[in-house]
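One chain given next:
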Amino acid sequence: MKLSEYAKHLLLAPNLEDKLFTPAKHWDEEIDDKPLRIQKPGRSHLIQFSDKKVKIPRLEHLNLESNKGLTLHHFANHELMAIELFAWAILAFPNAPKSIRNGWVKTIEEEQTHLKLYINRMNDFGVQFGDIPLNYIFWKQLEQFHTLESFSAVMSLSFEGANLDYSQVYAKVFSYFGDLKTSEIMLTIFEDEVKHVKRGVRAFEKSIPPEKNSWEYYLTLIQFPFTPRRAKGYLFFPETRYLAGLDQDFVNHLSNYEDKYTGRVNLESVKKFGLGSELMRKNRLDSLTNRL
């Protein structure tokens, strides 16, 4: 199978199991390198996009199983969109360096693992994927993806970058409520997201013009109303960005960035928990549980 054929399968096949088809280790040689920009993925009626808004539960309500299931459903939806959009990038940027394309394939496989982890755990809480309307926030950015650098700025540095924060916050809160199984899932995803952002940084940093720094270049690659606010979570964990290879100047600017939406979502919930800046790691889960 050609890599392009695999990417088309992920994008156009309608069922969830099709989206979870594992990538091969070796690919047939490509002949046609013409860019292909598919405008929307194939989706069965069970997993169709919806404009209906469903709020993610507040952090202090994650003691309830129903709210845990709803929260994980939100996260699973993000994983599915990421699978599709990294497949989209393979088709849209066929002349991207081989190392970048290989990174996208690895990311797809890891996102598939994340999706299965979320689905299995939400099933424990009585929620099936597709029970709740699925937004398409990532797909709404399609018109921004003019180059692989702009794609990396939005998908890797912004959306996946924000998940470095969110995975830490939710790992801590699930642990606070004694749900170590779900907390560990969040930490597994955190560790993979570090790799995903790092892959985006590598695609991004090679093209920074000599007259710009990384932050200035990043700002040229995103289009309002999309802003750097999308690149961080309720709490910001600077150490996670250093782990992903971002430089201090970029991290400082992102840390200080604010707009009119800053702090409007779940900030009071975060304050109630008094979540600290120390990172949780899988091998320290048990010891940190007693310190929250």
